[in-house]
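Section 3.1: Structural characterization of target chains.
Under the original work plan, the team committed to producing a structural model for every single-chain target entering the pipeline before any wet-lab resources were allocated. The record below documents one such target. The sequence was received from the expression subgroup and is listed exactly as submitted; it comprises 153 residues.
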Amino acid sequence: MESSSYAKKLLAAREKSGKSPEEIAELLGISTAAYYDLEAFDDEFTTSLSLEKVALLFKLLRIEPATFFETSPAPKPVSLDAVVQKINEYLNTQRMTVSQFEDRVGWDIEPLLNERSKILSYDIDAVRDISNEIGIDWLSILQGISSASETAE
């Protein structure tokens, strides 16, 4: 775990933003109780929010992903297309079926291969497991999502 916990960092960022837990919860589309859990328990952050909601939360609180996860330098953003391409390359080079890959990483990836945006519904733990297997820094995927949402505004 980093020198300061996810929960503490999230609490500090929200307080700095001047937004209430209720306001953030509403903007994220989650219950206030669920949001309070994010500020109380580190594992809630990596298991209960989709990557899409993490990116939105960071945008709302003006958090840079690399700063939050204490990664320097920030990894180069990776597009969702590049993630799917990398998975397909991995399957081909390893001569592995999708089912074998899913067994190895512990996550259902077939929906992602059919529609790249499905990765947005995965939590951080899932993205970490998949990324570790294919050799991509999971944070680069979050950076890519964050970058794409900034340019879409």
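The first helix runs from residue 6 to 17.
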